[in-house]
Design brief:
CATH architecture of the largest domain: 3-Layer(aba) Sandwich
Number of strands: 11
Helix content: 40-55%
Largest sheet: 7 strands, mixed
Mean pLDDT: 96
Radius of gyration: 23 Å
Strand content: 15-25%
Structural class: alpha/beta
GO molecular function, one term: RNA binding
CATH superfamily of the largest domain: Vaccinia Virus protein VP39
Number of helices: 17
Oligomer: single chain
Number of domains: 3
Low-confidence stretches: none
Pfam families: Methyltr_RsmB-F (PF01189), RsmF-B_ferredox (PF22458)
CATH class of the largest domain: Alpha Beta
Distance between the termini: 65 Å
InterPro entries: MeTrfase_RsmB-F_NOP2_cat, MeTrfase_RsmB-F_NOP2_dom, RCMT, RsmB-like_ferredoxin, SAM-dependent_MTases_sf
Family: Belongs to the class I-like SAM-binding methyltransferase superfamily. RsmB/NOP family.
Keywords: Methyltransferase, RNA-binding, S-adenosyl-L-methionine, Transferase
CATH topology of the largest domain: Rossmann fold
Bound molecules: S-adenosylmethionine
Strand order of the largest sheet: 7-6-5-8-9-11-10
Order of helices and strands: HHHHHHHHHEHEEHEHEHEHEEHHEHEE
Length: 391
């Protein structure tokens, strides 16, 4: 497909997403209906769509509207390209620019800071600034307009980082160590080959953000420790902990058993022993209880841009109430002298420090460690507070 034809495809897909359809579903339907498009075309179109969803506010401001056409015009303008060169009406290309579009594109562009603010939900600007401070919030807003890097976690129980880099390189995947976490690699080239590569199939590497890895590395984990991943989902934290301490007794629990469906297979691949518990039957007590709570996901919105536009104040209030409910249940599972690790992938104080302080007040347990990572550290936003139950 020509670059202009890819643009036209992205326009059509964005028009569906703007009408409320989930992007993944629309992309899949589009690919089914356009079998001639190769994997390179599909990946390029997907990037155009996701960039536009992430930068929806600024592209709309630059392109003069909220529809797929205006978003693509805004995208080209943001990249300093001349839209008229691709909107030329050639076969499969977008129709030529209208007079109104030419006028919109000639209007002065808003300043860079205003564009970055337009790409964050307006109602959440003040909470973000309250949480991070005005200067850091401005830097984070700018950073979050770009695509997120792809990170791998090296299964250090099976292979060293250096050997993993060599194994990946042999399959055409270029990865480099990341300072943030001892197990983390950043993929610089060949990311689309990961799911099919031997190192992944053999459980030597897993996809996991470097901030999650950094936090998992700081949790107290004595050999033989009893550990519960209470909100395990796909089991990312349980697997990271198992790689760190193969002798630990790690259990995974989630209210939704379906979320843990792939965990036995992932654990087998990694050579890890993880006991999958039934929902509502978390057992206990445990030396370490990890609560990776449901949250806004605001630290990961570079990867899931639709989520930022979907979040509402009412949903955020529901989430903070749920976090307290989960924390209250988790407290009862911690052994005397044990640790409760509360974590979210949020940047917002209401979901982070405010919740840790609340449960510390409720229990009288001291907060012994806190870590708040933002995309300025290079990975997703991630938060963790550790509370120690008195012996
Ligand atoms: C942020 S996700 C967990 C991600 C996972 N730890 C990982 O690393 O892949 C939050 C999880 O909490 C689960 N959850 C929601 N309410 C819960 C509850 N009351 N008790 C236990 N788990 C719950 C959700 O089903 C979801 O899988």
């Amino acid at each position: 497909m020509t670059p202009a034809a890819r643009l036209q495809a992205a326009i059509e897909i964005l028009d569906f997403t703007q009408a409320g359809a989930p992007a993944e579903q629309v992309l899949t339907n589009w690919a089914r209906a356009h079998r001639f498009a190769g994997s390179g075309d599909r990946a390029a179109i997907r990037d155009l769509v996701y960039d536009a969803l992430r930068c929806r506010g600024s592209f709309a401001a630059l392109g003069g509207g909220a529809g797929g056409r205006a978003l693509m015009l805004g995208a080209l303008r943001a990249r300093g390209e001349d839209p008229a060169a691709l909107f030329d009406g050639a076969r499969h290309a977008p129709a030529p620019l209208t007079e109104a579009e030419v006028a919109a594109l000639a209007a002065p562009a808003p300043p860079a800071e205003a564009l970055a603010r337009a790409d964050w939900p307006a109602w959440l600007l003040a909470p973000l600034e309250d949480s991070l401070g005005a200067a850091a919030a401005a830097a984070v807003l700018a950073q979050m307009r770009a695509r997120a890097p792809v990170f791998l976690r090296v299964n250090l129980a099976q292979i060293s980082r250096t050997a993993a880099i060599a194994a990946l390189a042999a399959e055409g995947i270029e990865a480099v160590p990341v300072a943030l976490a001892g197990s983390a690699l950043e993929v610089r080239a060949g990311a689309r080959k990961i799911a099919g590569c031997a190192a992944y199939r053999d459980g030597l590497v897993e996809l996991q953000d470097a901030a999650s890895q950094a936090v998992a590395e700081t949790l107290p984990l004595a050999p033989g420790a009893r550990v519960l991943d209470y909100c395990a989902g796909g089991g990312g934290k349980a697997l990271a902990l198992a790689a760190r301490a193969p002798a630990a007794q790690i259990s995974a629990h989630d209210i939704d058993a379906g979320r843990m469906r792939d965990l036995p297979e992932r654990a087998a691949r990694a050579g890890a022993r993880i006991k999958v518990l039934r929902p509502g039957q978390p057992g206990g007590p445990y030396d370490l209880v990890v609560v990776d709570a449901p949250c806004s996901g605001s630290g990961t919105w570079r990867r899931t841009p639709e989520a930022k536009w979907r979040l509402t104040p009412a949903r955020l209030a529901e989430l903070t109430a749920l976090q307290r409910e989960i924390l209250t249940a988790a407290v009862a599972l911690v052994a005397p002298g044990g640790t409760l690790a509360y974590m979210t992938c949020s940047l917002l104080r209401a979901e982070n420090d405010a919740q840790a302080d609340w449960i510390a007040q409720e229990t009288g347990w001291p907060v012994v460690a806190r870590r708040a990572l933002s995309p300025l550290e290079g990975a997703d936003g991630f938060y963790c507070a550790q509370l120690r139950r008195p012996a």
